[in-house]
Amino acid sequence: MLKQLLLIGLGGGIGSALRYLTSLLTTKFYFHQFPLGTFIVNLLGCFLIGILLGKSGLNIQEKDSLRFLFVIGFCGGYTTFSAFALESLQMFQHQDYALAMLYISLSVILGLLLVWVGLTI
């Protein structure tokens, strides 16, 4: 358990630092109301989690050190949107269409609502 936590922490730290650097670089070259840095990070994170799970042969259920370091740690630190996208896709793959749409809809709508509530408190 300690090994997995250390791997997740290491990967998460690297992912978080790269997320910050991506935002800095994006803001340096592009300053607009559209949050391009977050947008890039979310899409790149989705692409990376797909590559890591698809091409590496990692199984999301396995207790593999590489999964803890890269998928949970790095991608989790880089963006949680990648995990959201993966979980949504897995529901579609299991033909749980209604559950997938409920998860996606509630995540987006309630997420926006809770950010608004948090800002207004």
Protein model, in words:
With 121 residues, this protein is mainly alpha-helical. The protein has one domain. The chain has five helices and no strands. Helix 1 (2-29) runs parallel beside helix 3, helix 2 (36-54) packs across helix 4 (81-93) and helix 4 runs antiparallel to helix 5 (97-120). The longest helix is centred in the first third of the chain and has 28 residues, at 2-29. The chain is globular and about 40 Å long. The N and C termini lie far apart (38 Å).
What's the total count of β strands?
0
Q: Which H/E pattern describes the elements? A: HHHHH
β-strand percent reads under 5%
Question: Radius of gyration over alpha carbons?
Answer: 16 Å
Average of pLDDT: 86
Structural class: mainly alpha
Uncertain segments are none
In helices, the fraction of residues equals over 70%
Major sheet attributes: none
Number of helices: 5
State the shape: globular
Number of domains: 1
Cα separation of the termini: 38 Å
Function: Fluoride-specific ion channel. Important for reducing fluoride concentration in the cell, thus reducing its toxicity.
Binding site for Na(+): 76, 79
Organism: Brumimicrobium salinarum
GO molecular function, one term: metal ion binding
